[in-house]
Specification:
single chain; 357 residues; alpha/beta; seven-stranded mixed sheet; three-stranded antiparallel sheet
Length: 357
């Protein structure tokens, strides 16, 4: 029996994708070898890569004004690549600071550029600063946001119009809802939430923003170089890219991001309703900014946390422990987490609460 996996990442993968990968693991389409054994230069693998990119473009409506790159290093590599490629040494860049991952992005950007905090919720990271409070720099090369903070559970419910190109770390809500690609100069996302296994970052970058890296930039860190080589300047993470392609195909078969967004809203609504209806559980996040992907919650008595987690494990409701920096619980409801999983979690929460009464 498969467990219900609420891990924040590496996260649940769709059963259909795992079954397809299992069936093809030893013998891909009668070739007698595994995808992970293929040359990335072979026709068979190039077909896999091209199909993955085409499906992703179709899912998000990405037109030819943008490069789609499949790079190694995860989102953490992008914390550095964004300022290196989009801002010359010492240039001003805007960051909206909404949580732990935003903090990491800022720390990396400060090595390259002059970081201006255009807005911040650092008084607790429990909300998204209202756009009316933002104070962007008039000379900023770009404005960076973290669309969904995995640890704190706050999410942008809309995307602002900015004068500077908008850059978004979408690692934990990528492909979970429709977005207007034209609002963004660059989007990046670590794979291990909604795309596939860890080891890959998807980067969607407007073509006019490429080719700006300083001449002394290592080529492996230059978006233009990766675009020129079709994300194969070096040997890519071939198997992870293949699995990402299976996820994209699965999502298209479900009806795309519009269809999965409706499922995600239902899942999150069920869990938040259970929390709000109880005096035993509570959510620290401002209601208007609650994430549909990562739902942190606390128990009335933190001393019961260990018992709650033990009971959850017995029911195969796994990886509910909150991040060490905030404590409590966290349920991650990525695309591959089923409604049945959320129903099982809500049932357990209600049983546990009654047992403590």
């Amino acid at each position: 029996m498969r467990a219900y996996n609420f891990s924040p990442g590496p996260a649940a993968l769709p059963d259909a994708v795992l079954e397809r990968a299992k069936a093809e693991f030893m013998d891909y389409q009668g070739m007698g070898l595994s995808v992970m054994e293929m040359s990335h230069r072979s026709k068979a693998y190039l077909d896999i890569a091209e199909r993955a990119e085409a499906d992703l473009r179709a899912l998000l409506g990405v037109d030819d004004d943008y490069h789609v790159l499949f790079l190694q290093g995860g989102a953490s590599m992008q914390f550095a690549m964004v300022p290196i490629n989009l801002a010359r040494q010492g240039a001003t860049v805007d960051y909206v600071h909404t949580g732990s991952w935003g903090s990491k992005a800022i720390a990396e950007a400060e090595r390259v550029a002059q970081v201006h905090i255009a807005a911040s919720s650092a008084d607790g990271f429990t909300h998204i600063p209202h756009e009316s409070t933002w104070r962007p720099s008039p000379s900023a090369r770009y404005c960076h946001i973290t669309s969904n903070e995995t640890i704190g559970g706050v999410q942008f419910q809309y995307f602002p119009q900015t004068d500077a190109p908008l850059v978004a770390d979408m690692s934990s809500d990528f492909l979970s809802r429709p977005i207007d690609i034209g609002r963004f100069g660059l989007i990046y996302a670590g794979a291990q939430k909604n795309v596939g296994p860890a080891g890959l970052a998807v980067v969607i970058v407007r073509k006019d923003l490429c080719g700006r890296a300083p001449n002394d930039t290592p080529r492996i860190l230059d978006y233009a170089v990766h675009a020129e080589h079709g994300s194969m300047f070096n040997t890519p993470a071939t198997y992870t890219w293949y699995l990402a392609g299976l996820v994209f195909a699965w999502l298209r078969q479900l009806g795309g991001v519009t269809a999965i967004a409706a499922v995600n809203r239902r899942k999150a609504s069920k869990l938040y309703a259970a929390i709000d209806a109880s005096n035993f559980y509570s959510s620290p996040v401002a209601h208007a900014d609650r994430s549909l992907m990562n739902v942190p919650f606390t128990l009335a008595d933190p001393a019961l946390d260990t018992a709650f987690l033990a009971g959850a494990d017995e029911r195969r409701l796994l990886n509910l422990k909150g991040h060490r920096s905030v404590g409590g619980m966290r349920a991650s409801l990525y695309n591959a987490v089923s409604e049945q999983a959320v129903d099982a979690l809500v049932d357990y929460m209600q049983v546990f609460e009654k047992e403590q009464a």
